[in-house]
């Protein structure tokens, strides 16, 4: 009987740790007020193939999921959403497109200086921007950023040389 409960616990724990809990930006900000944690925002567009690759491959890597769950509230933000919301003392909505065939982009993406997709924005525990990383990343490419920002090591690194040395020292948990 004890083996059964141990087995059940392992299965439930593995399944619960294998998924990223994606929140809305409002949900992440609310959660952050109750339990301070950094925020990772994945800015994506529905027709963006690179965004789909990041979601389907990189974010489905168990080690990446573990880092994100441990250090961040995760937000997926569709830059073409029509939903309005309030955050940072401001109301955000979809901006009107300029010209025929132009894609509407949400004001929040512009507010965060997001100009290409996919982009990942890292916010600290007070919702202040740390940095943005643009483009599709493999799990091994994303891992150093999650560790660096998640652990707060970015507060100790001040030069690009220190960053490169830091990246070289990180021992990846991701198998090839």
Describe this structure in words.
- By secondary structure, the protein is of the alpha/beta class.
- It has a single domain, classed as Glutaredoxin.
- It is built from seven helices and seven strands; from the N terminus they run H-E-H-E-H-H-E-E-E-H-E-E-H-H.
- The strands form two sheets. A five-stranded mixed beta sheet has the order 1-3-2-6-7. It has a two-stranded antiparallel ribbon with strand order 4-5.
- Strand 4 (85-87) and strand 5 form a beta hairpin.
- Helix 4 (62-71) runs parallel beside helix 6 (139-150).
- The longest helix has 16 residues, at 2-17.
- It is globular, with a radius of gyration of 18 Å.
Total count of domains: 1
CATH architecture descriptor: 3-Layer(aba) Sandwich
Return the CATH class: Alpha Beta
- The class by helix and strand makeup works out as alpha/beta
Number of strands: 7
Biggest sheet overview: 5 strands, mixed
* Helical segment count: 7
Distance between the termini: 38 Å
Mean pLDDT: 88
Strand order across the largest sheet = 1-3-2-6-7
Helix content: 40-55%
CATH topology: Glutaredoxin
CATH superfamily label: Glutaredoxin
Uncertain runs: 2-16
Q: Please tell me what the overall shape is.
A: globular
Instruction: Tell me the β content.
Output: 15-25%
Note the run of SSEs as H and E: HEHEHHEEEHEEHH
Overall radius of gyration:
18 Å
Notable characteristics:
176 residues; alpha/beta; Glutaredoxin; five-stranded mixed β-sheet; two-stranded antiparallel ribbon; 7 helices; 19% strand; globular
């Amino acid at each position: 009987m004890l083996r059964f409960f141990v087995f059940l616990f392992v299965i439930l724990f593995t399944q619960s740790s294998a998924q990223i809990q994606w929140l809305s930006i409002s949900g992440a900000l609310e959660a952050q007020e109750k339990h301070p944690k950094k925020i990772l925002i994945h800015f994506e567009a529905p027709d963006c193939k690179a965004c789909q690759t990041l979601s389907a491959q990189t974010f489905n890597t168990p080690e990446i999921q573990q880092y994100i769950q441990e250090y961040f509230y995760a937000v997926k933000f569709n830059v073409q959403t029509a939903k309005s919301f309030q955050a940072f003392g401001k109301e955000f909505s979809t901006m009107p497109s300029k010209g025929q065939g132009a894609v509407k982009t949400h004001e929040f993406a512009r507010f965060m200086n997001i100009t290409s997709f996919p982009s990942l924005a890292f916010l600290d525990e007070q919702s202040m921007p740390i940095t943005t990383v643009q483009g599709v990343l493999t799990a091994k490419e994303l891992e150093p950023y999650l560790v660096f920002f998640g652990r707060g090591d970015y507060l100790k690194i001040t030069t690009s040389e220190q960053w490169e040395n830091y990246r070289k020292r990180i021992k990846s948990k991701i198998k090839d």
